[in-house]
Amino acid sequence: MAAAPHQILTAAQMQEAEQALIAAGDSVETLMERAGAGAADWVWRMAAGRPVTVLCGPGNNGGDGYVIARVLSERGLKVQVVAPLEPSTDAAKTARRKWGGEPVSHAQGSVFVDCLFGTGLGRPLGDDLLAHLRTLADAHELRVATDLPSGIDSDNGEALNEGLPSYHLTVSLGAWKHAHWLMPAMAKMGERRLVDIGVSKVHGAARLSTPPRLSAPTPDAHKYSRGLLAVIAGQMPGAAILAARAAQHGGAGYVKIFLDEEDDPIDAPADLVVERGSLFQLVRDHRIDAFLIGPGLGRSEAAQSRLDWVLACDVPTVVDADALTLLEPPMLEDREWPIIATPHAGELETMARAFDAVGLDRMEQATELAEGIEGVLVAKGPDTLIAAQGASLAIMPPATSWLSTAGTGDVLAGLIASRLASGASPRKAAEQGCWLHSLAAGNCGPVFTAGQLIEAIPAAYAQLL
Predict the structure, then answer these.
(1) Is the preceding omega at residue 184 within 30 degrees of 0, hence cis?
(2) pTM across the whole model
(3) Contact of 205 with 9, CB cutoff 8 Å
(4) Please, is 334 exposed, middle or buried when counting C-beta atoms within 10 Å of its C-beta (0-12, 13-18, 19+)?
(5) Residue 228, by phi and psi: left (phi above 0), alpha (psi -120 to 50) or beta?
(6) CA-CA distance, 370 to 283, in Å (whole number)?
(7) Which residues span the domain enclosing 90?
(8) Is 422 in the same domain as 316?
């Protein structure tokens, strides 16, 4: 079966995948050798000839550590092993015997390798083990976590103890785990690398999103064939202008702002069309391929009426910002086209209350809400989740933290809506918009505004052609 380097597994899925390998002829010992040798390659590169300390736990993660210690010693590195607990599994006992050395009670040096506990840990570290881990981490210049940093819940990325060390490198064994790409754990892992041990594709597994492939317009394209996007303005039209400007660079051929006749005129760029009139008449244009509603909409009764009317048009729609706080299940009952909802953390909780998805963790909420809205949900943040009805969860690789500034969410909404108007399916539009947003931010460097982010979109688009 084919390898799946971008899949993300729960602890239970990883255990099942390993059992499948064993059923096919491998053993726990051969898998441990494969994993430990692969991790040792990465530690070898980081050590660059300097001494290494390996902290080994009692289980198979500790067994991986003994393999790492043996492989590095055979390559000529000075390696010390700290083992506060004796091996408790047959495979770990075998790995320690093959290593053949004697553990020490403490060590200090250049590179520290944490092999105390890996995937599947569900309880906090005891005080003695936590103190041991912290002391060794503090005594070394560089720190490597094998599979996962000890004290991290692999399925949700939560820290099971306070004050856990941060690492310069985390080497995942066999497959990515959710914690590798979720906060707060993600912030402690440094660079992440994956060691292949032969795990095949697991049905229903989440996946790490990969860069999409975009295309140039066809030779006979015109502005309507490339998609007409209508952005609904509201109480704070500046947000709608930001979103529309971003959408102009996202692939749609024609972007308009719809301004109700009751609203004050707005000062938009000359190349951005603003149509002002009865909103209930404007949205009836049969040429509209997608709507974006929410940025700067406000939360008044008038805003709720606009949202209700736009959704009643049953056109592919991105619902963002204020519109998410106004969204109610009855508004979606008669729609055939799915919506894309793009909440940040606070808006996600608001949606969870409206759609009866409280008491769940963030991944469960995203998945449940995607089913509830019968569409796509983009849970924005440093660890952006993309959930789509009937599809596996996708997690975006982290974007630059310089995106944490006002207006960048409006830019993202505009990009997703632009991709939707240009003909991409809702799920693909969400991922394509997120990638354009992330790449544009990476092209900006430090300290940029939402306007500067928009100017960086064309270069990001070119990266995906």
Answers:
(1) yes
(2) 0.95
(3) yes
(4) exposed
(5) beta
(6) 25
(7) 7-200
(8) yes
